[in-house]
Input
Amino acid sequence: MIVLLSGGVGGAKLVHGFSLIPHCPSTAIVNTADDFVHCGLHVCPDLDSVMYAVAGLSDPQRGWGVCDESWQALDMLKRYAGPDWFQLGDRDLGTHLMRTHALSQGQTLTQATQTLCQRLNIQTQVLPMSDDPVRTQIRTPQGWMDFQVYFVKHRCQPAVSDIRFRGIVHAAPSANVLAAIATASLIVLCPSNPLVSLDPILQLPGMPHALKRSNAAVVAVSPLIMGRAIKGPTVEMLVGLGIAPSPVAIASRYSEVLDGFVLDTRDAVLAPQVQTLGVRVLTTNTLMESTQDKQQLAQTILETWT
Amino acid sequence: MIVLLSGGVGGAKLVHGFSLIPHCPSTAIVNTADDFVHCGLHVCPDLDSVMYAVAGLSDPQRGWGVCDESWQALDMLKRYAGPDWFQLGDRDLGTHLMRTHALSQGQTLTQATQTLCQRLNIQTQVLPMSDDPVRTQIRTPQGWMDFQVYFVKHRCQPAVSDIRFRGIVHAAPSANVLAAIATASLIVLCPSNPLVSLDPILQLPGMPHALKRSNAAVVAVSPLIMGRAIKGPTVEMLVGLGIAPSPVAIASRYSEVLDGFVLDTRDAVLAPQVQTLGVRVLTTNTLMESTQDKQQLAQTILETWT
Output
């Protein structure tokens, strides 16, 4: 069983890649610290990105949300001068309605997610990192902001000086998450934002211990290529927190749990520096543009570490 | 100021009719006992029917909901095998999202409704009967059912043996409602279901007193023509509760507050019976098929009682 720790878009691509490998059951443990309640609906951006990617429902042009989307509800919300900063597509709304309904019936987020995935015929096991609420907040010159407000409403414009995960002290990885890690043959940290996508998962109480107890190799895929992120404010956030925007700094950040690190070919020159951390380095193409790219990266990781 | 007590579709038509009369400010006091929370969203079917009717947004074919509607969210909800028994259109969802957002920000339902109406450029003042939750429940052979479950999910099929309004004892008409009644020159009970649309409004604590104190004539429009309702289970409910499905029985039910009663021309033969209740009777066309019908009925009522 391959276990993938993932945030949204970038991580979702690699989860999709693994899902395409025959006879290779995988579990995605997905960040939920970006979740929020919007207009009464429980929205889980990272879970949805992973789910839509694996179900083949992602919109290829936009890079987020559902394909064949329409925007009638949002148009009405705009007409009401409502909170239209978060792009709620009509099809996407069906997901939020179903999840909110399931939660209102007393289901856990894990159960609600399982229901959604079953109905989309997804073979990958998609798990929220926790059934407890954790909420990422970003410190900016305007003060602390909820993640989606920073990320979507303010389009990542404010300078980031600190990040916190409200509620994480009282949150726990779900039983399914702990079971997946305990039985994993390989654990992959997907190319997601380390600060706001992977850290909330890795900092859940009990998670460092679970990773250390696992016999599986732990491998991280660099979210940076040539000093840049494919999408999102990873570089800006790293710099804001005084961390070098380099794969080496990211490998170093995780070195305590890390057995392997995947560098993009274009960053091959950095391999020796990562190796000094006692980490085995794979150098390959990590830019996942096509479906074939995604599957190829997954396959290469699999062949290197299992 | 004309005050109209209204439920959904039938009442909404007459509210629309009054809104078309120039220089005739009107206030609709609308039943909220059909409201419910569905998939996390606060849905107010009667308020929406009135609002859409007056804004010219009603769908003329379906007879409910918004024109130019699409059903992408509902299609996804069906795909998830979710609660698709309540028809949530995409445009309609925009209304529920905005209302739920406004309520989550601490607005009262009165304030939230005012915001929605302003943005739709509605001149008619549309008021929820109360800011307190009242919930209609229907007694059937399967036990007590929430109104929407009876009305939509079970398509009015179960036999009705009793009706109750949960929470009504602790609910109050809003200050705006009481002010509207106190300053009304004419109060019209619209041709809505008396048992589930008008009774919740009329049975609010303080409402009978407010109506008695008002100097305005109180006029009811029969919701029945030739022993049948235009739409909805009015007749079945009346029979289920042992009330004759006749305009005379309805006039009698309200006789304590009633000054006038509007009978359809096809029921002119019943006028003497209604008159014996001490109520002045207007006989005219009450079937509102066209916009002109609606305005004509409103105009005739206005000319008769002001």
